[in-house]
């Protein structure tokens, strides 16, 4: 089973990556920009594996560039307290 198959596992995976980046001193602005790039990639290259991902993709596709940056930043905040080390 892939982490993309289950939204809770996906959030844990993202939370773990976020915590690793923070522990390695990656600036928040860089983290948010990477989240934006991941969102761009997922919206165009990856099929949604569950309802939550489909909703996020639809929101992403309906959003302006500025709104997409806000969505990416919000996703970072969403997974802040997620992960296997929490």
Characterise the protein shown here.
With 86 residues, this protein is an all-alpha fold. The protein has a single domain (3-79), classed as Cytochrome Bc1 Complex, Chain D, domain 2. 72% of the residues lie in helices and 0% in strands. It has 4 helices and no strands. Helix 2 (28-45) crosses helix 3 (51-62). The two termini are 22 Å apart. The mean pLDDT is 88. This is DUF3243 domain-containing protein. It comes from Piscibacillus halophilus.
Q: Can you tell me the residue ranges where pLDDT is under 50 for at least 5 consecutive residues?
A: none
**Rg calc:** 13 Å
Chain-averaged pLDDT:
88
Second-tier CATH architecture: Orthogonal Bundle
Structural class: mainly alpha
What is the domain total for the residues?
Answer: 1
N to C succession of SSEs: HHHH
Please provide the count of β strands: 0
Largest sheet: none
Strand residue content: under 5%
Helicity level, as a percent range?
over 70%
CATH topology type: Cytochrome Bc1 Complex, Chain D, domain 2
CATH class descriptor? Mainly Alpha
How many alpha or pi helices? 4
Report the end-to-end length measured between terminal Cα atoms: 22 Å
Q: Overall 3D geometry?
A: globular
Strand and helix layout:
Layout (H helix, E strand, L loop, with lengths): L6 H17 L4 H18 L5 H12 L2 H15 L7
Helix pairs in contact: 2-3, 2-4
């Amino acid at each position: 089973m892939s982490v993309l198959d289950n939204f809770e596992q996906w959030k844990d995976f993202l939370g773990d990556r976020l915590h690793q980046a923070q522990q390695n001193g990656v600036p928040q602005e860089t983290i948010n920009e990477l989240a934006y790039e991941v969102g761009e990639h997922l919206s165009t290259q990856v099929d949604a594996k569950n309802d939550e991902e489909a909703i996020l993709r639809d929101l992403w596709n309906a959003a302006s560039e500025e709104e997409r940056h806000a969505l990416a930043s919000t996703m970072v905040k969403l997974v802040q307290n997620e992960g296997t080390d929490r």
